[in-house]
Specification:
Aspartate Aminotransferase, domain 2, 417 residues, 2 domains, single chain, 8-stranded mixed sheet, globular, Aspartate Aminotransferase, domain 1
């Protein structure tokens, strides 16, 4: 049967990191005994869930809920939400944008599928273009989203060892080469998987590079500014007319409602709107209206900085203390966690691949993500790619500790052989 499927479908039917991650999440649902340190699910933060319940009650009591679930929205998104986002960006960041610069998508995954395939692959001018990742590791799905296999150019990072425990990736700007075969540049900030936050200097150089070559710079801010603000270092979010900014409501605690926001020049917004219309007719407005008042009142800023960020910062510090307890004699290094809610482990002396380690850990009821999936386009011969694991600290502390204990035991067992 598979031989009769289209080549388009073949890109999504094979073994991918995204499929592995989501299949594992499905197993968690069916087997509550699993300790899930693998997925990107946000934590249930009581204050946030309370606010969302209040918003749902208001929608139901006002009668807006009936209209919300029974009416198609514009493929650009809910007008009230778009206007609120435009005013929010203007007032809080000083951005010179209007409503024609904003479109809503059915989640960040949808945003990036559309954007990557808008700028990469065989183009109308006859050039076959690619998406450039200035530095890997990067988000697990970037390599899976392109319809045309091979339409991704990835670069190795510079590895900076900070002390005996922490290290940090940085961009090797001397290695970046931009040609007419590059359709767009993409970077996440903060990074999923490593928690890396590229510096303001690095961001400035990327903006300068892309503006010089008149290329879109896609900035994935799903975990960052202006919400949910899961950032543990002070950085700015500079505005560039050539940049494409991608935001999400997921990490506020609304992952299941699949709501993404793209801010870009009008022609790009019009293109996404057209693709939304063909592929989805309209976009889901439930998430948009649940946070509408929070955005209009600017409460979303206070909640991000005073509730969401402190929650994850406290969970991070606890997790690092536990890592010190369980990993202290194993040679495990941790990428400096400046944002998001993941720890990125590097085990330089690991004698097996991270994929094999993942399977050993999973066999004991703990889910993590092997690091090799976060280096799309990078050869397997680079040892570092197969020496890393990503784990989430969004779970409860008891689960994190039990998970770290199993992980440390399996690393120790591998090192002994």
């Amino acid at each position: 049967m598979k031989d009769s499927y289209s080549k388009f479908s073949a890109r999504f039917l094979g073994r991918t990191g995204t499929k592995l991650l989501m299949d594992d999440l499905g197993e968690v649902s069916a087997n509550p005994g699993y300790i899930n340190l693998g997925g990107g699910n946000p934590a249930l933060i009581p204050e946030m869930t309370r606010r969302f319940r209040e918003s749902i009650r208001e929608l139901v009591d006002s009668g807006e809920f009936d209209k919300l679930v029974s009416t198609y929205e514009s493929p650009q998104g809910n007008d009230l939400f778009i206007r609120a986002v435009q005013e929010f960006l203007k007032d809080t960041l000083g951005w010179d944008v209007n409503e024609s610069n904003i479109v809503v998508t059915n989640g960040s995954q949808s945003s990036f599928f559309t954007l990557f395939n808008l700028f990469a692959g065989p183009c109308m001018d006859g050039v076959n273009r690619s998406i450039l990742l200035p530095m890997t590791p990067e988000y697990i799905s970037y390599g899976d989203l392109l319809v045309n296999e091979g339409s991704l150019v990835s670069h190795l990072p510079k590895i900076n060892e900070i002390d005996d425990t922490f290290f940090k990736y940085s961009i090797k700007f001397d290695d970046l080469r931009v040609s007419k075969e590059i359709g767009a540049v993409c970077v996440s900030r903060p990074s999923n998987p490593s928690g890396n936050v590229i510096t303001d200097s690095e961001m400035g150089k990327l903006i300068e590079l892309t503006e010089k070559h008149e290329l879109p710079l896609i900035i994935d801010s799903a975990y960052g500014q202006p919400f949910p603000e899961i950032l543990f270092k002070d950085v700015s979010l500079p505005f560039s007319k050539g940049a494409i900014y991608c935001f999400s409501l997921s990490k506020l605690g609304l992952a299941g409602l699949r709501t993404g926001v793209v801010v870009a020049e009008k022609p790009i917004i019009d293109a996404i709107k057209s693709i939304n219309a063909v592929t989805s007719l309209s976009v889901n407005a439930v998430g948009s209206l649940l946070v509408l008042k929070l955005i209009k009142s600017r409460a979303i800023t206070a909640l991000s900085r005073d509730v969401v960020k402190p929650f994850y910062k406290a969970r991070l510090l606890t997790t690092l203390d536990l890592c010190g307890l369980y990993f202290r004699d194993l040679g495990v290094r941790i990428h400096r966690p400046d944002g998001a809610f993941f720890l990125w482990l590097w085990i330089p002396d690991l004698p097996i691949t991270s994929s094999e380690l993942y399977h050993r850990i999973k066999a004991r009821g703990v889910l993590v993500i092997p690091g090799n999936y976060f280096f799309p386009g990078i050869s397997d011969s680079w040892e570092h790619k197969n020496q890393c694991l990503r784990l989430s600290y969004a779970q409860d502390v008891e689960s994190i500790e039990r998970g770290l204990q199993v992980i440390s035991q399996e690393i120790r067992a591998a090192l002994k052989h």
